[in-house]
């Protein structure tokens, strides 16, 4: 499989995980937005630890781990009333996903050691010009490791890009962790606050 196809596949799974129908539904509906506090109490947050992935983070009680597989873990913001995505499934107001990948498997080639800046450059090349126009990027650190943060700052439903934020973390010379968040529009401000605090608790473990 070509490098371009692999990168495109991974990006497609992570970036277009929300359907355009969801976007149109949430714009057409008119619920009363919830008012959430700017500062969250984290004293009762739970800790999720994954020995296989080699990381842990904390998350609020009202969030729930809903899926684990060999490549990722997801958690959702729970409400008593979930909203229909289609006739057989439901969307939650917010979802955070964390995945761990071997860089060489995504980029191809024979060198198992791939510099983080090279990985980021190739990852960003998978975005179209239209998608890049919606984004702001910045370098940072997470648990002392180099990180690259991609934040959606504009809406363009026709682009199919509905993820709020993506964080790439240099887990090792061979591996990268990807954490993303998406949300309903009326919960977006709150979900982003929660995501930033989850990210602040992220730790690599031996």
Question: What descriptive keywords fit this protein?
Answer:
alpha+beta, single chain, seven-stranded antiparallel β-sheet, 206 residues
Description:
The protein has helices spanning 3-15, 20-28, 103-107, 116-125, 129-132, 188-200; strands spanning 46-50, 55-59, 63-68, 72-77, 83-84, 90-91, 94-102, 135-142, 145-152, 165-170, 175-183, 203-204. It has 206 residues and is α+β, with helices and mostly antiparallel strands. The strands form 3 sheets. Strands 3-4-7-11-10-9-8 form a 7-stranded antiparallel beta sheet. The protein has a 3-stranded antiparallel beta sheet with strand order 1-2-12. It has a two-stranded antiparallel sheet with strand order 5-6. The chain is globular and about 45 Å long. It starts with a helix and ends with a strand.
Briefly summarize what is shown.
With 206 residues, this protein is of the alpha+beta class.
Structural class: alpha+beta
Name the helix and strand elements from N-terminus to C-terminus, one letter apiece. HHEEEEEEEHHHEEEEHE
Helix content percent band: 25-40%
Biggest sheet character? 7 strands, antiparallel
Quick check: average pLDDT? 78
Our count of helices gives 6
Low-confidence stretches: 5-9, 11-37
> Which percent range describes the beta-strand content?
25-35%
Radius of gyration: 17 Å
In total, the number of strands is 12
Order the strands across the largest sheet as they lie in space: 3-4-7-11-10-9-8
Q: Any idea what the shape is?
A: globular
What is the subunit organization of this protein? single chain
- Span from first to last CA? 32 Å
